[in-house]
Amino acid sequence: MPVSFESDYIAGAHPEIIRRLSETNLETLPGYGTDPYCARAKEKILRACGLEHGDVEFLTGGTQANSVIISTMLADYEGVIAAKTGHISAHEAGAIEYSGHEVLELPQENGRILPDTLRRYLSGFFADENHEHMVFPGMVYLSWPTEYGTLYTKAELEEISGICREYGILLFVDGARLGYGLMSKSADLTLPDFARLCDVFYIGGTKVGALCGEAVVFPRGSKPKHFLTSVKKRGALLAKGRLLGIQFDTLFTDSLYFRISGYAIDMAERMKAMFLAHGLELYLDSPTNQQFVILDDRQMEAMRDRVVFSFWERTEDSRTVVRFATSWSTTEEDLAELEKVLAGLD
Amino acid sequence: MPVSFESDYIAGAHPEIIRRLSETNLETLPGYGTDPYCARAKEKILRACGLEHGDVEFLTGGTQANSVIISTMLADYEGVIAAKTGHISAHEAGAIEYSGHEVLELPQENGRILPDTLRRYLSGFFADENHEHMVFPGMVYLSWPTEYGTLYTKAELEEISGICREYGILLFVDGARLGYGLMSKSADLTLPDFARLCDVFYIGGTKVGALCGEAVVFPRGSKPKHFLTSVKKRGALLAKGRLLGIQFDTLFTDSLYFRISGYAIDMAERMKAMFLAHGLELYLDSPTNQQFVILDDRQMEAMRDRVVFSFWERTEDSRTVVRFATSWSTTEEDLAELEKVLAGLD
Amino acid sequence: MPVSFESDYIAGAHPEIIRRLSETNLETLPGYGTDPYCARAKEKILRACGLEHGDVEFLTGGTQANSVIISTMLADYEGVIAAKTGHISAHEAGAIEYSGHEVLELPQENGRILPDTLRRYLSGFFADENHEHMVFPGMVYLSWPTEYGTLYTKAELEEISGICREYGILLFVDGARLGYGLMSKSADLTLPDFARLCDVFYIGGTKVGALCGEAVVFPRGSKPKHFLTSVKKRGALLAKGRLLGIQFDTLFTDSLYFRISGYAIDMAERMKAMFLAHGLELYLDSPTNQQFVILDDRQMEAMRDRVVFSFWERTEDSRTVVRFATSWSTTEEDLAELEKVLAGLD
Amino acid sequence: MPVSFESDYIAGAHPEIIRRLSETNLETLPGYGTDPYCARAKEKILRACGLEHGDVEFLTGGTQANSVIISTMLADYEGVIAAKTGHISAHEAGAIEYSGHEVLELPQENGRILPDTLRRYLSGFFADENHEHMVFPGMVYLSWPTEYGTLYTKAELEEISGICREYGILLFVDGARLGYGLMSKSADLTLPDFARLCDVFYIGGTKVGALCGEAVVFPRGSKPKHFLTSVKKRGALLAKGRLLGIQFDTLFTDSLYFRISGYAIDMAERMKAMFLAHGLELYLDSPTNQQFVILDDRQMEAMRDRVVFSFWERTEDSRTVVRFATSWSTTEEDLAELEKVLAGLD
User: Fold this and answer.
1) Do D132 and B229 touch (CB under 8 A)?
2) Does the interface ipTM go beyond 0.95?
3) Is the pTM of this model over 0.80?
4) D198-227 burial by CB neighbour count: b if 16+ within 10 A, else e?
5) CB contact under 8 A, D93 and A135
């Protein structure tokens, strides 16, 4: 079997999570997220965010979280701004539109919306005499890390947050891979920063060691009224909410979330060094667990049967951008095997 | 701690499921339901349904399954017929309406739509000269067992299926508790019967031993085109589809699904006998794992701190209907404790 | 050609409206309801409602008005309460559900929701321990006159309005035939009463002399923010808003709206007297422009080719309820012709 | 009062339409588009399109038509392709997204999608290994003339139609200003061409002489089943359908539609010649009734109080693109007045 770097969700859950699910399995608990594990997980997350006043809610996956959050927080006449490469723009099969709201796509750079681009868009929108016939921007959606593994700096996020507040619109950060951003060597943003600068964000579980689950943080009372009812209305309420509560309780015990994210970053750095050592061209300089490499057809052919990675896009000169991802489940053996394959390319 | 009969989802998963999740945890598998466990589970389910040509898809929970199925199978101008007490009518926070379709509520008897009621409604609809200004009935939704634990007989389901085919509308059975129906002493319907009579139905996991998950069966090519895309659009696609595949593979190995359902039925029968022995009044005669009892205020008071059950509704003479549910996790000790409490009521 | 009482929209517009459309036709006016005729009509309507602070917006038809109003004023987790016979419940092809909201149907009496029924429903809803899993009631929808031509008294509307305010939900009156109610001999409600007791209501034009158009009144700042954008989003914004403004300006000049409504009421009263004189059985005692008569098959047969009326429903004893409607366009000749037909039935 | 070229809907209806509305006003007619005027108009339109087998349905306005057509013809998993400048992309307040479908925006040139752009997009979509996680393209939306007054040639439309058929997706042409295209000196497309190449298109009334109304043409059985019910569900069904039927019957009698469109084109050509004669810079070369001119601030200032036109956009060098539109209501006096103003700019 080939070694796989296909994604950060190729294995089950971190073994500690499986252990805790097993240990608590026979306990009698109330449903729909009202159990003590959910309560404890929420508390730990709020504490990690430095939030005295705030709410945490668990949802099952990223597209679901994006759709529930955006559609419950926007006004009827509003849409959500996102990079053209944002997950909600391209890869969620129209989940936001399904909720009746438009994704307002902005140009991007390596997956990021530049603050200037945002400012120009917003000032242009309100200057347009016909803007009442257009979808109002009601929220900015960023992913951190982005779909290209890149990060916004603290200065940039502060600038974007400032623009949002100036225009009275919400800032939402999709943190499906938040752990990998937080533990990146390049990152200067922390959980309390997100809690301070955003109106809502989530801490991804599915791609960071859980079987499923995203923890949505609503700082300072931003949680929509009767949120549970809106979640149920969208088919997103788990009967056995314990499944999410126990996982996040485990991830936020003894810093497990940060430890496994840090481990994946280390593995990614070593992988990147290997790519460079073997003369492969990076598509961009990603400081997180996703690494993008440009391969020519010969290289593709040579690796195909021995390593699994993800197709990303074709370049204009007929080469292929592919993605390699690490996670808690990446092993020394995986890297060693990759090294062998890369050596064969030389 | 009081003993709990609050619902059939108060415990985690059947231990065999936890064991399999643990065993397979480190395997590298592709996402979104394309792994071999999903494939194997689908095969086993099709075989159990006696279907040579059919599809199975996994979803996470009951409300989600109802909403995805109904909204992808109805035409724009159609709604879904359901009993006024049907889960989609009352207890799903408007999930069907969220998808843009009306639930057309019919009168019921102990949770069931009588075939005559259905026939009268349909013939009345098409006889109404203004029916083009009304929502067309496009599907009949039944739950089996119903929300009151009752069952349709084979003759009744055949009659209803015949009416649906006569009018060219779909028949959908919500089987969130299907196992408890199939193993009921009163049932004369089998999985192959459902596969033969329905256009779609699901085999509930969440309430029958799984952590989460419902297996939707589409007999004879009834699965909507590009279903995966529609599932994703509704935020219902799990990245780690293995979570559902492994659970259903386990439930359909060595008849586990039927064995644990049968066990819960045995426990429910014994519980029912205990209620009658202690002179409690049954609200209706349920042949499945949910038992409905009418309590007066004194009895409510006496039991409150020692047994957990679900509030159902108030009767006109100011008594209370409550529900007791059994499942695979109900123990001998639970029943013994209930017996003690009931003895105290005499 | 048979004489027609089929509905109150069988003719074009009141001739005065046609005259004004013609007179103003070549004027250059801005679009989307920003012209002076719209402004003037709004002013006159606010004055007629005794509102110093309020808004008026024009929409094209009744189903559209209901859907726009309800979907822009409800919260995500809310539905709208209506009589089972309410227009939005039965005859709008699921327009409210299309907007993602449920119509919560209550039992009715001759088209009316009794205040006690409403109170019992609301107190029951909030007493239900599971109500967070259900659609919250967010608005009461009444039609006045109802679909059966009946009226609520001022005492009843005050009671209903009081209940709504007690529970913090909105009161919306569908006044597609408001004029016929206001001019009914039995009515004790006035436009200022509606403005005082409702959160939103509309003054119907389509059925009261206009080619199309409903004037929605939002008292005391209840108009949703950026309403124009929400109207456009629903495809309900007319480019030539003048079409609605000129019509309502005309209807509210020299009390035309009230005069033509009163005329239709007079004709309806004479018609009703004719039915009784000829021994026909009224289905109910309607004080407005719609009269409901029960015909046996012989009577149906005898009238069929000479008078046009609307089929309403079959009675249990196999007779037919039919509706006769008057309007500004009903003539003396029409009544004389009807008299001849009725005489022939004796 | 300044002379206005603000839009093609600044006047009421063509006087012939007003005359016919007036003449037929007292006729008793059935509702909802079942009257003989609708029937006659449909027949005339089908004949003008050279369609033996086809359907015509009337809707009230352009955004409504776009939203009804697109949402009833797309499958659940599909979106609609449009130019980034297409009306549905930018200026309809999210009406398509309200129906749950995404607008897939393509780059454009003067408002037009180049066939190559379309082909590249479609082949790229299906080549993408992840396309099942994305919105499927189900329809191409073109406007003809475009929002910039430009036209596709017959060769281009044939190519686009061919691509659509190759990929099995629908072709829809928004003809809000179809008349101005058809009568343009540059046009080589006719109504029968549209009927042959499109799956659906509409003939705009609102902007071509009607008070309101668009005639949607469904060639060869492409009309969605139970379309009336779907139209009602969207609040788009007029009770007095005669209002639309009489208007289109008039427009398609004695070629009125073509005559007034041709008149507007003549006026636009003369206006364009005046702009060029006075040295104004055209933003692009429009062959239809909308002319786009680039003005500097001095010119804007000088014209502001004497001519009404529409703001379009700012150029990068801080000048302003504005639009002048002609229609049937543009007079010799209007052009003479414009000439005076332009002379003053020299």
Assistant:
1) yes
2) yes
3) yes
4) bbbbbbbbbbbbbbbbbbbbbbeeebbebb
5) yes
